[in-house]
Amino acid sequence: MNQSHLPGEDVEVFYFGSSEKLLFGIFHRPPPQTARRTGVVLCPPIEQEYIRCHRAYRQWAVRLARAGFPVLRFDYYGTGDSAGDDAVQGLSQWRDDISAAVEELKNRGRLSAVCLGGLRLGAALASQVAAERRDITGLALWEPVVSGQEYLQELLEWHRDKLWYFLSDVQNAPETNVRPSELLGLALTPTMLDDFNQLNLLSTTQPPADRILIIENNATESAKELLAHFEKLELGVLYKVVAGPRVWSDDPDKALVPHEVLQAMVAWMSEVAE
Fold first, then answer.
1. If you average pLDDT over residues 233-251, what whole number do you get?
2. Which domains are delineated in the chain?
């Protein structure tokens, strides 16, 4: 029996990648009459931020598919429904996962070009991967992590706040210089910790894509510095401030969707991609 779907809701769920490191993917198929020649891979943030923004990510994919884009959402190795435990050795694994997702989308949609979109750490990883490839035509960076050190400090503070909230004796624990081994459910291996400390998008020397969108809900100095850095590389960069809920940090039971932000990113991709 044929099953009809609303535009953007025609999805295929599957695993892809190597047999040793299977990745969970969801392919959003656009309506045939509107299908574009460029696809979009959405690169998620991690752990608690991903849990909180999951509904918004799905809506992002649906809206892109309705605009004619073949879209692939996926979980990094060791996260979500992908294979592996949570002790991923380093950020290089997740960058490899993004490249695997790009190849999977190109093969599945018979595409030659792909745009990448990402939120928070997903945006940073997408930018790094795009700089290593020649088939990424557009890059949408939503609240991008520019400095891994600053991001790590932010997670540490969030982690301490949650421990204090749930475990009253934590507030009396002395501060130490011990390297953290876990943050908000994310296992921090020594390699992963070093990778965070070395992550800096301002050190990028290779242009990640000809067309780049940087979007955030409040203007930050780090995003402005990233904008200036990309402009020095003579890239077509658009910076936008669009008010909306902080879906990556708000309580998960709110299940908010930042409609204006999503619409701005879909409209931009529709303009820069075929």
1. 89
2. 11-147+190-272 (3.40.50.1820)
Residue with token string 């067309």: 211
Distances (CA, A) of 166 to 23, 102, 169, 171: 33, 40, 9, 10
pLDDT digits (tens, 9 = 90+) for 31-85: 988 889 999 999 999 888 898 899 999 999 999 999 999 999 999 999 889 998 7
117, 166 in Cβ contact below 8 A?
A: no
